[in-house]
């Protein structure tokens, strides 16, 4: 048996390296890398071709009644004496909103107050004059009535006397006829016959006097009754004349009161807002004292859009609304669609009617009004439907232009190329 030159332990110790074994890393196969890169490129191309981006314009505005806001204005200069409603109250057409006074001042009492006192004094004098005339005519009527009763009694007495006197005349006539017969027979003298005939003439004369007296009394009674009837008519006539004069006086007082005390009325049924005056303030003619939102009128959003962004806004475009009164972070955004785009730019005064944000946005830039129809008139807040109110301010995003991503990249290049080719 051959003995090795070196011991096995020494050989084993020499065979192991202190750095360890060599490990060779195998790279990722090129095919896998190619497929992954191709998939990534395809995804990017698909996203660029299929993906879409919507261009939006952010503007400010406010909610306005679709039927417009009716204004209650002061017809003339005056001082506010009473405010009959409060903001947000529901009113009826013709309901009094404000009461004004145009009373003029002078030394002492106001001129209007003095005019009212004079008119009242004239009315009192007319009433006193009417009462005095009525009492006088009634006294005259009572006097005539008493005289009429006296004449009625006198006529009754005369009728009785006439009956008796006619009997006396008949008796005297028979006596005279008898004396004539006796005179022919010679039983009485001529003197006795003459006395009998004189007695007959006297009785007939008394009868005629009574008849004349009765005729005169009857005539007086007729006149008294006619005069009494005229007095009754005169009482009615005086009353009618006085009533007419007092009616004219009341009309004059009403006209004066209408000129000095003015009532500002609600132009239609609805909700009153924007009360602009308090009692004691003076207002000029034409001053807007209140606005009335017609009942049943839906709200719409009026947006102020700058001229640089209005070109691509069209009817039917979607709009996202964020109302300041209902933070969208908690209550979400309202939606709507463009109803119309006004083609005439707004004046500076019209621009100032918008919200403060809108005024800051407008600056010196020309603005256009865009009207948006709301999808809903309420917002769900804390489990209840809260209605929107006119005048609420808002921000809006108008979805203006929706194109693919590749179009956003290619279109500017094509436009530049066409412009270069045209030049």
From TrEMBL:
Stretches of the chain forming a coiled coil according to its record: 193-227
Top-level taxon of origin: Bacteria
Domain CzcB-like barrel-sandwich hybrid: residue ranges: 77-289
UniProt domain AprE-like beta-barrel: residue ranges: 303-399
InterPro entries named among the record's database cross-references: Beta-barrel_AprE (IPR058982), BSH_CzcB-like (IPR058647), MFP (IPR050739)
Gene3D superfamilies, per the entry: 2.40.30.170, 2.40.50.100
Alphabetical keyword list: Coiled coil
Database matches in Pfam families: Beta-barrel_AprE, BSH_CzcB
PANTHER family listed in its UniProt record: EXPORTED PROTEIN (PTHR30386:SF28), MEMBRANE FUSION SUBUNIT OF EMRAB-TOLC MULTIDRUG EFFLUX PUMP (PTHR30386)
Protein name, entry field: HlyD family efflux transporter periplasmic adaptor subunit
């Amino acid at each position: 048996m051959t003995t090795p030159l070196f011991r096995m332990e020494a050989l084993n110790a020499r065979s192991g390296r202190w750095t360890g074994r060599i490990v060779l890393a195998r790279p990722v196969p090129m095919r896998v890398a190619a497929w992954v890169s191709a998939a990534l490129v395809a995804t990017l191309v698909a996203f660029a071709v299929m993906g879409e981006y919507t261009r939006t314009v952010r503007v400010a505005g406010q909610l306005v009644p679709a039927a417009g806001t009716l204004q209650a204005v002061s017809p003339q200069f005056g001082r506010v004496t009473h405010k009959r409603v409060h903001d947000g109250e529901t009113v009826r057409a013709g309901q009094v909103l404000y009461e004004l006074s145009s009373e003029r001042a002078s030394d002492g009492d106001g001129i209007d107050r003095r005019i009212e006192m004079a008119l009242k004094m004239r009315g009192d004098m007319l009433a006193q004059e009417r009462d005095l005339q009525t009492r006088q005519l009634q006294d005259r009527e009572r006097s005539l009535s008493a005289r009429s009763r006296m004449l009625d009694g006198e006529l009754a007495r005369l009728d009785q006397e006439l009956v008796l006197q006619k009997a006396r005349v008949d008796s005297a006539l028979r006596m005279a006829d008898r004396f004539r017969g006796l005179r022919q027979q010679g039983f009485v003298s001529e003197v006795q016959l003459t006395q009998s005939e004189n007695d007959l003439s006297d009785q007939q004369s008394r009868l005629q006097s009574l008849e004349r007296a009765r005729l005169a009394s009857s005539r007086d009674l007729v006149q008294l009754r006619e005069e009494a009837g005229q007095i009754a008519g005169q009482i009615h006539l005086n009353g009618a004349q006085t009533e007419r004069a007092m009616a004219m006086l009341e009309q004059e007082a009403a006209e004066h009161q209408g000129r000095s005390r003015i009532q500002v009325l609600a132009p239609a049924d609805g909700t009153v807002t924007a009360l602009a005056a308090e009692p004691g303030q003076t207002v000029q003619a034409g001053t807007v004292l209140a606005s009335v939102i017609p009942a049943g009128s839906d709200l719409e959003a009026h947006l102020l859009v700058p001229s640089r962004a209005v070109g691509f806004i069209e009817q039917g475009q979607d709009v996202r609304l964020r109302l300041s009164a209902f933070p969208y972070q908690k209550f979400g955004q309202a939606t709507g669609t463009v109803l119309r785009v006004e083609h005439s730019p707004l004046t500076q005064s019209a621009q100032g009617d918008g919200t403060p944000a809108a005024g800051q946005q407008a600056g010196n830039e020309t603005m256009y009004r865009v009207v948006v129809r709301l999808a809903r008139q309420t917002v769900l807040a804390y489990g209840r439907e809260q209605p929107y109110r006119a005048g609420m301010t808002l921000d809006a995003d108008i979805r203006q232009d929706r194109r693919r991503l590749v179009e956003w990249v290619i279109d500017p290049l094509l436009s530049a190329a066409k412009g270069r080719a045209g030049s």
